Amino acid sequence: MATNTIQLQLPKLNGNFFDNWSTQLKVFYRSQDLWNLVENDYTEVANPIVFEALRKEEKDLLVETQKKDQNALYAIFQAVEDTIFEKISSAKTAKKAWDIF
Fold it and tell me: Does residue 9 fall inside a structural domain?
């Protein structure tokens, strides 16, 4: 049985045509169920004591949310030219990187 896969090439932002680039990335993020993270961010639990106090379901959800956010952040990093990457490379979440634009 043949498997159909789509190779996705994210557009690169070079400082021009931000509106076009952001529209394309938003569509990509929505297709991956990531746009909510980019738009709204999430609350990270940095304190290990607080994390351990969470129920298993809450921990699992937090870990999954962090993974999704890092995927979204990675996609942003991949979709910008080096000069722009330098400006956003210190961002720890996808929303923080997006907000720099």
Answer: no
87 contacts: CB under 8 Å, gap ≥ 6: 100
Neighbours of 86 (CB within 10 A): 10
In 3D space, the residue among 10, 5, 4 whose CA is nearest the CA of residue 28 turns out to be 10
Q: What is the pTM of this model?
A: 0.83
CA–CA separation, 38 vs 67, rounded Å? 13
Name the average pLDDT for the chain. 90
> Is residue 2 domain-resident?
no
Domain range for residue 70? Answer: 18-100
Residue 51 has pLDDT above 60, yes or no: yes
Q: Is residue 41 part of a domain?
A: yes
Using the predicted structure, report yes or no on whether residue 90 has a pLDDT greater than 90: yes
